[in-house]
TrEMBL record:
Lineage: Bacteria, Pseudomonadati, Pseudomonadota, Gammaproteobacteria, Oceanospirillales
Protein name as annotated: Glycerophosphodiester phosphodiesterase family protein
Taxonomic source organism: Pleionea litopenaei
Pfam families xrefs: GDPD
Gene Ontology biological-process annotations: lipid metabolic process
SUPFAM superfamilies attached to this UniProt entry: PLC-like phosphodiesterases
Origin: domain of life: Bacteria
Length: 254
């Protein structure tokens, strides 16, 4: 089968949560490291603090990637900013904080990075998260290039209404909620420019069903060259990678 036609021109490798194999995920250090190693786009996860500030943090709970305890949603941005988000990864990164989206949008402008903002709502905050992100983007003088994505259909529906010209993507991990046919139809209905799938789904019918669909397929999380080649060979346009397929990244500015 020939390669699936590509509709977008995102890079073939997008740094996942920054270059998160080599720096703590979703921190400024991780985003800067991606840029230092030549990546032009990165993916990151946005959720709201208790006082409604969009911040970048993957898990609903604080424990895995910070020295905080409990649910992220229970704390104000001011409190979350006091936490250490680097020491869990290595002593070299002690002092990294949980970034606000506002800070990271500035970083993107400074480093000319594109940002894939995965809307990762706290429970029942699908629409509130999109509204807060939209308000922040509206309030700023300038914004970088953005690609929205989410597992949440409610979040993507609101992205479509509020920011119709910002590209968006449905994220799918498995077939628990929808069949492959339904996923393709849903991606089209939401006007998505891409469908972001768990890389294991390239071995399923989804690839065949999406072959003629008017959106790209991107795969997460792909950390080995052999897996990347399988994804690209299956017609995927881009992969999300923690390693960037690098064995030894450049760690510091020369
Ligand atoms: O956006 C792609 C990927 O990040 C989705 O899964 O859990 O790593 O945010 P997760
Ligand atoms: Mg993500």
């Amino acid at each position: 089968m020939a390669l699936k036609f590509h509709f977008t021109d995102f890079p073939t490798i997008i740094a996942h949560r920054g270059l998160s194999a080599f720096a703590p995920e979703n921190t400024m250090a991780s985003f800067r490291l991606a840029a230092l190693n030549g990546f032009r786009w990165f993916e990151t996860d946005v959720r709201l603090s208790a006082d409604g500030i969009p911040m970048l943090f993957h898990d609903a709970e604080l424990e895995r990637t910070s020295n905080g305890q409990g649910l992220f949603v229970d704390y104000s941005a001011a409190h979350l900013k006091t936490l250490d988000a680097g020491g869990w990864f290595s002593q070299d990164f002690i002092g990294e904080t949980i970034p606000t989206l506002d800070e990271v949008l500035d970083l993107c402008l400074e480093l000319r990075l594109g940002i894939n903002l995965e809307i990762k709502p706290n429970v029942d905050q699908d629409q509130a998260t999109v509204e807060a992100v939209h308000q922040l983007l509206q309030s700023r003088h300038a914004n970088p290039e953005i690609l929205f994505s989410s597992y949440s259909v409610a979040a993507l529906t609101l992205c479509q209404q509020l920011r119709p010209r910002t590209p968006r993507a449905l994220v799918v991990d498995n077939f628990e909620l929808n069949t492959a046919d339904e996923i393709v139809a849903l991606t089209e209905r939401l006007g998505c420019t891409s469908l972001h799938i768990n890389q294991q789904l390239i071995y399923t019918d989804l690839i065949r069903l999406a072959y003629y669909a008017p959106f790209d397929i991107m795969c997460f999380t792909v950390n080995k060259k052999i897996t990347a080649e399988r994804c690209w060979g299956a017609g995927c346009a881009s992969i999300f990678s923690d390693t960037g397929l690098l064995e030894a990244p450049t760690l510091k500015q020369p």
